[in-house]
Amino acid sequence: MKNLAYIIKALTPPGKTGSKWRALTPHDALDRRSFLFRSGGALCLCALGDFNIVSCIDESSASKDATEGFAKIAMHWKKLDKSTVQCGLCPNECVLGNGERGACRVRENRKGTLYTLVYSRLATMHVDPVEKKPFFHFLPGSMAYSVATAGCNFSCKFCQNWELSQAKPEDLDAVMVSPDALAHRAHASSSRIIAFTYNEPTIQYEYIIDASRKAREKHLRPVIVSNGYIRPEAGRQLTTSLDAIKIDLKSFSQKFYGEICGGVLNHVLKNLELVHKSGTWLEIVVLVIPTLNDSESEIRSMVRWVKRNLSADVPMHFTRFQSTYLMRNLPPTPVEALERCREAARAEGIRYAYVGNVPGHRWENTYCHNCGAMIIRRGGFYAVTSMLRNGHCPHCATRIPGVWV
Ligand code: SF4
Description:
Elements: H1 2-11, H2 32-48, E1 72-73, E2 77-79, E3 85-87, E4 95-96, E5 107-110, E6 113-116, E7 121-122, E8 124-129, E9 143-148, H3 162-165, E10 175-176, H4 179-188, E11 193-196, H5 205-217, E12 221-226, H6 232-241, E13 244-248, H7 254-261, H8 265-278, E14 281-288, H9 296-309, E15 316-320, H10 335-347, E16 353-356, E17 366-367, E18 374-378, E19 384-386
Parallel strand pairs: 9-11, 11-12, 12-13, 13-14, 14-15, 15-16
Antiparallel strand pairs: 1-6, 2-3, 3-4, 5-6, 7-10, 8-9, 17-18, 18-19
Helix pairs in contact: 1-2, 4-5, 6-8, 9-10
This protein binds iron/sulfur cluster (SF4).
């Protein structure tokens, strides 16, 4: 029974029961109501063959010690002297003395060698619709085996997954899932996609590179949901490992990036260009936060930049902020504000602009940019109907940008 309770908790998407992210632990108690609710969901998944429930958690490998089994020599760093190293994975370029960790909390200098502490270390696993990432032009209606670890190289005050992103690896119980095992589990769950998501995935770089290779061997499509904060050399290598990348463009203002996220806007813009040029499928999400990044002038500057430097065909999602973490003082984004952002994007020539986090909204559907016909209907994440014919509009035969098979 203890195992079943653990598995059921692992299958529970965050937010579904009003709960927040929490560590996976076999020792957590479930009340009767939660147990029945989650049992039902877990058994449904088993019955549908969606999830290999027996093998989804290797409980024996659960560990509370970040140094136990998960440490691996990192990529993208250099030695500055006998005991000091500099990480070159992201633009923070942390300089670390012996025993120190980077700002992301998952890379550590051990006697002059930089280690990642999260290789194969997963703090959460769920099977989600790809629309939830969100990707709207990438294999619509497919399931994505979605995984995360602890840590982030940003410190966004509005983070919706802060209990993961602002944690150290040892703060969260975790399971060891090798790249091979991850591909196996995703395949067994009938997912077509493996998504590295929830926290910032690029800080788990070495694992993503290896797991994506294994995923492709099983004809799975690896994707990441990222803040786009990575140095160019590492970013270029990563794009070749992935089939799609979603980048959060959190604002079009350096002040916002500096004061609210702890980052530099220009690095994100450069990486948007890098991904677009690489040919890896790209979608952009803008979380619209009342009073902070929702002015029409800022949105227009942003979408003009996307059209000029990337393409009018890159889908843009304007999604709803929910009051959380260090920004509980701000209200959720009014739906009308999201609609205004979408209208501005369309007026500036972006062909596929969406309203997000408003289930059932008409601007969550996809309409052909040429004739205006609805070509993908979305009634929430689980009700996706595609009318596309080989990636073309069924009415006017225009090719619709995206990855459809
Ligand atoms: S990946 Fe982590 S350790 Fe490396 S530079 Fe970025 S924040 Fe620092």
